[in-house]
Every structure is written in C-alpha cells, then in structure tokens.
Design goal:
- Helix content is about 75%, strand content about 0%.
- The two termini are about 30 Å apart.
- The chain has one domain.
- Helix 5 packs antiparallel against helix 6.
- The chain is globular.
- By secondary structure, the protein is mainly α.
C-alpha cells in the first residue's frame, strides 16, 4: 500500500499537502482509496485487453472481437481493422504502464525508468487515439452519428492530452506535466469504465434504453459518459489539492472520491470474477 499511497504525488510533492486539518486528511485518504482502486482495476483490465484483443490479433482470430462489440472486425475494411487493432493493443499498454507511472516511488527513486516508461506510455496513448480515429473515419461506429461524435471527441482528447503531457515534461513544467498526465490517465481508463458502466446498467435495468445497434437513449448518453465524468473527477483532484482551497471543497471532493472508489471496487470484483479473470486464466493456460 505504500506505493499506492505515494501515487497521489503525481500531482504534488508531499510538502505541499497540509497535514493538520481534518478536511485535508479526509481528502488525502479518499484520494488514496480512489487511486488504489483505479490502479488495481485498470491494471487487471489492461492485462485483459492484451490477453483478449491483442492475442486475437496475433493469432489471426480477429473475428473474436465481434463477440464483444459487433462490427469491430471487418475483413473488407482493412484500414479500419488495423486502426481498431492498434487502438486495442496500445490501449492495453497504456492501462498497464499508466498504473506504474502513478507510483510516486518509481518516479522518485528511478527517474530514468520513469522517463522511459513515460515515453512509451505517451506514444501508446497517442497511437491509441489515432487508431480509434482511423476506425471511425474509415468505417464508422455501430451506433451511428452520435457514437461517431462521442468516440471521435474521445480520440481527439486522447491525442491532445498525450501531446500536452509530453510537451510540458520536455519543457520542465512538471506541475503542469503531472496535471496533464492525470488527465491522460483519466481518459485512458475510459474504455475500462465503458464496459463497467454497461455491465452495471444491464444488470440493474436489463438493458433499458440500449439497443442491439447501440443507438438507444442510454447508448447515446454512454457515447460521452464514459470519459467526461473521468475528466471532471481529475479536474476536481487537481484543483482541490492546493492548501488554499476551502475545507468544504476538499470534503466534497473527498466524498466524490469515496463514492467512486466503492463503485469501482464492486465493478472490479464483478468483472474480474466473470470476465477478465477467466480470459486471463485461459490466456496463461494456452
């Protein structure tokens, strides 16, 4: 847990966090809980992505992609298929490496390793965004215009966040770099939350507002919901970390973090037990 505890240092050195007020302690504790949950869940999902999508790509069984989302693999659209394949492969790398980059001890004790992993991480995030955009332009999403716009905006934001993370690191603006790195990770976990949100929704409502072609009311909301709230939470984290922020804002932000951590913990258990875990066991046993 000590490594996870230092993960929030991605945004600020320990000396800038006020230790005395209860609001600051609550904010820090809730931040640790959220980071720990995201770290574990995103790592598991990243490994699942590599085990399922990348393995299908390397074994020439891309038709398996369509079991999760119809229309992903189309032999008559090679450019789109290559784009979505690139998106999945690099997306898995982003999730796994992003978890490592959040560990403050890695950055502090092994700065060279942190920089090299960061370069791979940023390039992978950039390629994941570009790959998704190539797929949308070349083939379009199954959900039509609304889904195209929502997912297209997501791809653009991934590319921008990756570029800004790299640009500020190169310029030595480390506080700004760390803020953009957190935004980038918040976007990177979007594909993970997309599946988690759908899993909860299907379980609780039996698919209310969802259609086979992902163009129902719920599907249209989800075309944006899987990444915009993430960015909102990331911004709350960035802005609430300062010592000059009012205690009420720290408490409110901390409460949001706790609720998010509980939601993600339940979802992680469910998906690991029924989906991610079996896929990983099958991959390892091959």
């Amino acid at each position: 847990m000590s490594n996870v505890h230092t993960a929030i240092d991605v945004l600020a050195p320990p000396s800038t966090i006020a230790p005395a007020p209860l609001s600051a302690k609550f904010f820090r504790g809730s931040s640790i809980a959220l980071v720990a949950t995201v770290w574990l869940s995103a790592l598991l999902f990243g490994l699942y992505i590599l085990a399922f999508y990348a393995d299908a790509l390397f074994t020439g069984e891309m038709v398996r992609w369509n079991q999760v989302l119809p229309g992903l693999y189309d032999p008559d659209a090679p450019a789109a298929t290559a784009g979505i394949g690139l998106h999945f492969a690099t997306g898995g790398v982003v999730l796994v490496l992003g978890c490592i980059q959040l560990l403050g001890k890695v950055r502090d004790r092994f700065p060279t390793l942190h920089r090299w992993i960061g370069r791979i991480y940023v390039v992978s995030a950039f390629l994941a965004g570009v790959g998704g955009l190539v797929f949308i332009v070349g083939k379009g999403t199954i959900g039509g215009t609304v889904m195209d716009i929502g997912f297209g905006l997501y791809g653009v934001l991934m590319v921008v966040a990756a570029a800004e993370t790299f640009r500020h690191a190169r310029a030595g603006r480390l506080d700004t770099h760390r803020a953009w790195a957190l935004r980038l990770f918040a976007l990177a976990i979007g594909s993970w939350l997309y599946r988690m949100d759908y899993g909860f929704w299907m379980t609780l409502t039996r698919g209310l507002g969802h259609t086979r072609y992902f163009n129902g009311p719920f599907d249209m909301v989800m075309a944006f919901f899987f990444y915009l709230p993430n960015l909102a939470v990331a911004e709350a984290f960035i802005r609430a970390r300062g010592v000059t922020v009012a205690p009420s804002i720290k408490v409110a932000a901390g409460t949001v973090f706790i609720l998010a951590a509980l939601f993600l913990a339940v979802g992680t258990f469910y998906f690991t037990y029924f989906y991610w875990g079996p896929a990983l066991v099958h991959w390892i046993g091959r």
